[in-house]
Write a structure and sequence with these properties.
The protein is of the alpha+beta class and 70 residues long. It has three helices and three strands. A three-stranded antiparallel sheet has the order 1-3-2. A hairpin with a 5-residue loop joins strand 2 and strand 3.
Amino acid sequence: MNYKEQDKERIINYIKQHGGRCAVADIMQHSGAEKLRVHTILFEECMAGRMEAVEEGPFGSPRVVMLVEA
């Protein structure tokens, strides 16, 4: 069982349920995904072009992310 893929689906579903745009802190608290994997998954999804960082914090870490419509 691939836990990273499960967490990715949880994150994507959570963002979709909240209008396609969410604060990273809310994703970490309420999505059900493992907190230590959230930033890595968000980074990979942004690099793949499936998500976009709408607001960034210090050192470029995303604060708010948005799903990119395909």
